User: What shape does this take?
Amino acid sequence: MQEIVQGIAMPLFDRLAGESASAEGGLLQTRQAVEASIRQELMQLLNTRAGVSVAAFLAAEAQATPYGLPDFAALSASSGQDRALLSTAIARAIALFEPRLANVAVDVRASVVHQSHVSLHIAADAKMHAADRRMTFEMALDASHPAILAGALQ
Assistant: This one.
């Protein structure tokens, strides 16, 4: 007799590190656990630098694209063209390295408080149990010190 399994598989690194207390049998059981896991993966991805330029990152074939974000220190937060380029690079990184998300849209906005900071609005469909659920994330990047400053699940 076949058994119906409820839940979504935990990412490999979560399982290896024993990260999720809400996982049973290697499965994320609740919507909150899935959301927290995706947020954690996004924070890790967006805090990792791929060590290549934005142009090289966008031109690389999917199988040869390094994990993380490209070097965006040369981009200006006040330039609409640079923000659009960063948006494209972030959306590509998420599409390549977070398979639980689809239809990723990234909006990069200049910070009104700090010239070197940008805020990110990330929206995507998350594969959760039997249906997709639209999720949004608000995060901040510091262009002079490439690191996520804050992140919150909406």
